[in-house]
Amino acid sequence: MNNITGMNILILQGSPRANGNTAWMAEEYRKAAEAAGHKVALVDVSHKKIAGCMACGYCRGKGNGACIQKDDMQELYPLLAEAEVLVLASPIYYFTMSAQLQAPIQRIYCMNKPGKLKKMALLASSYSPNVYDGAIGEYRGILNYWGVEDTGIVTAKNDEQKTDATRGRILELAGKL
Ligand SMILES: Cc1cc2nc3c(=O)[nH]c(=O)nc-3n(C[C@H](O)[C@H](O)[C@H](O)COP(=O)(O)O)c2cc1C
Predict the structure, then answer these.
(1) Contacts of 113 (CB under 8 A, 6+ apart)
(2) Are strands 96-97 and 85-93 parallel, antiparallel or unpaired?
(3) pLDDT, tens digit, for every residue of 13-66?
(4) 82-115: string of b/e by CB count within 10 Å (b at 16+)?
(5) Cβ–Cβ under 8 Å, residues 74 and 110
(6) Any atom of ligand 1 within 6 Å of the Cβ of 127
(7) Whose Cα sits closest to atom 8 in ligand 1?
(8) Domains in the chain, start-ordered, CATH in brackets?
């Protein structure tokens, strides 16, 4: 289906398990968003070489917004610059988002805010219930800081993973764009 109001969506998927629960959630979101006419880039950041921010300040000075570290984050910057919707998809590791996802999030520092971004969503998967406060707090902090709209959050604990119910909630979330 082609939708003239289709948006550019970037999904950052932060689990190293290619057939795991977070990858499944990200893929379900991608399918739902594409079916609604949006353009989606889904990036498995855990198989990229992306280091943490060095706080060197290069981007704020000589770099004029560019990061001095020339790793795989360079592939993400153009996608971030075009993204109107950013979806963070993470497994819960020690009550927060995975390190693999934290690194690219913190490297957005050099952009201040992705220029075209209007909306965000969070997908998260865990073993236990009630372990999402850390990830949700970070997600809400970032979207308030950037002044973008929260389209919603879908979580899936052990018995909710890869279920029709969770697929339905992801479909509903993608429908809110
Ligand atoms: C290093 C590590 C830390 C984890 N920490 C938590 C945790 O704090 N709470 C929890 O409920 N599950 C925790 N888990 C379980 C994962 O969140 C859970 O299995 C999740 O569904 C994995 O997603 P994936 O299939 O996309 O990799 C942890 C797993 C790993 C490998």
Answers:
(1) 145, 146, 147
(2) antiparallel
(3) 999 999 999 999 999 999 999 999 999 999 999 999 999 999 999 999 999 999
(4) bbbbbbbbbbbbeebbbebbbbbbebbebbeebe
(5) no
(6) yes
(7) 94
(8) 8-174 (3.40.50.360)
- Rounded Cα distance between 113 and 36, Å, is 26
Q: Model confidence over 17-26: pLDDT tens digits?
A: 999 999 999 9
Residue corresponding to tokens 């984050």: 73
| Tokens describing residue 85 | 């919707």
Nearest-CA residue for ligand 1 atom 16 is: 126
Probe residue for ligand 1, chosen from 21, 100, 126, 162 as the CB with the greatest number of ligand atoms within 8 Å: 126
3 pLDDT higher than 50: no
For the entire predicted model, the pTM comes to 0.97
Q: How much of the chain exceeds pLDDT 90, in percent?
A: 97
Helix axes 73-82, 99-107, angle to 10 degrees: 60
